[in-house]
Write a structure and sequence with these properties.
There is one protein chain. With 117 residues, this protein is mostly beta strands. Helix content is 0%, strand content 20%. It has strands at residues 38-40, 59-61, 70-72, 87-91, 102-107, 114-116. The strands form three sheets. A two-stranded parallel ribbon has the order 1-2. It has a two-stranded antiparallel sheet with strand order 3-6. It has a two-stranded antiparallel sheet with strand order 4-5. It starts with 37 loop residues before the first strand and ends with a strand. This is CUB domain-containing protein.
Length: 117
């Protein structure tokens, strides 16, 4: 059974200190990277388990022309209640830099909901 993760962050600094009393082989370090963002074209669940990180993840959700995309937000966990910093923005289309395509901004202060486009 693998050990539990020690840290969940996008940066880590490690300092390995030794003395000169007993000699061994050192240590083994391994890490994994959780993907943030991507393309979605089938029903799925998205979760970001550590919301304390400074992240900007962009998912492009695409459906066939005769289908409607339904987004259900079950919960948002955040220490800060600031909607400017901790939010999910929903855009119509794949142009996330175009403010006019912004459909909704969802944050903890407004609560979860259902959005369709």
């Amino acid at each position: 059974q693998p050990p539990q993760p020690v840290i969940s962050s996008n940066k880590i600094e490690m300092i390995f200190s030794t003395d000169n009393v007993i000699g061994y082989k050192g240590f083994l370090f391994s890490y994994t990277v959780t993907k943030c963002g991507g393309d979605i074209n089938s029903p799925t669940t998205i979760s970001q388990p550590n919301s304390s990180l400074l992240l900007e993840c962009v998912w492009f959700v695409t459906a066939p022309p005769d289908k409607v995309i339904t987004i259900k937000i079950k919960s948002m966990r955040s220490i800060l209640m600031l909607c400017d910093y901790n939010n999910i923005k929903l855009y119509d289309g794949h142009n996330v830099t175009n403010a006019s395509s912004l459909i909704d901004t969802v944050c903890k202060t407004r609560g979860p909901g259902v959005n369709q486009t």
